[in-house]
Structures are given as structure tokens and as C-alpha cells.
Amino acid sequence: MQGGMGDQFMQAGMQDDMDSEKADIAKTLEKLPDSHAALVQGYNWKLHPGNTLNGDEEHVGYMDDQDKEIAISSPWNYGREFTVLHEIAHRVWEKLVPPEYKKMWFHIVQNTQDKQDQSPEELFCMAYANRYAKNKIVIHDHPQWHEFIERLPQ
Ligand SMILES: [Zn+2]
Fold first, then answer.
1. CA of 18 to the centre of ligand 1 (A)
2. How many whole angstroms from 83 Cα to the centroid of ligand 1?
3. What is the pTM of this model?
4. Total domain count for the chain?
5. Quick one: which of 5, 84, 95, 119 is 20 to 30 A from 65 by CA?
6. Got the DSSP string for 87-100?
7. In angstroms, what is the span from residue 1 Cα to ligand 1's centroid?
8. Is residue 100 predicted with pLDDT exceeding 50?
């Protein structure tokens, strides 16, 4: 038997979920400085239900400039908004953080106690996500990190 009532309801429900996730992402982008949000303007977000993306243990997402696509997974430990912000942060790091700021960041990270064992760029993305996410991740929450994100070029 094909496509009973139940299937139609289910498809409608999935469509609603996708629309509401797009609306949520738009709301998150509104919290960011314009120049940061502009870095992902026109990109299509692909939200994957899995804990990681195919065969990639380390990264919660990736950005494809050719196809203008940003894919993110649903890591156990992080909320969807945190993950979205983490991916934007990689782009901010790459495009908007000047070299002298990066040096400052390396110094801050070196002097942060009880941080996770990850690269400075990854930790920057955690700090950035924590600055703007509604649900903050305690292990990445440090006052000096918030301060640094506040002082980024806008
Ligand atoms: Zn990352």
C-alpha cells in the first residue's frame, strides 16, 4: 500500500520542522554583527540528524563554497544553535579575525585553565558559539573568552 493518510501527515510534519529550523537559523543570524551574518548569506543549510557527518569524527559541520551549502550534524553534547554558530565561527576566524587578534587568542587560550584539549581555532569556535547561543556549554565558558569575542572586529 502506498501513501496512506499517515504518510501525508508525516510529510507535512517534516516540512514544518524544516521551515521552523530555517526560521530558527534566521533568528540566530539576527543576533550576530551584520558583517558576520553576511559571511553565510545566500547559503543553504543542510541539517543532518546524525551525531557526526559521514565518517568525520572531528567536525560537526562543513561549508561548501561551490554549492553554497553548509551542512551540520546533531552532536550529542551541543544544541542545534550552538552547532550552527560554531560553523559560522570557522568562517569568521578565516575571514574577519586579523592576525594580531589571532595571536592574542593563542595567548588567552594558553592561559585558560580547564579548557578542552582542542586546537585554538576549534576553541575559538566554541567561544564564539557560547557568546551567542541561548544554551551555553559550561566546559567552554570562560569570562576572558567572552571578552575576546566582544572585541572582535565587526
Ligand atoms: Zn569546528
1. 23
2. 9
3. 0.85
4. 1
5. 119
6. HHHHHHHHHT--HH
7. 44
8. yes
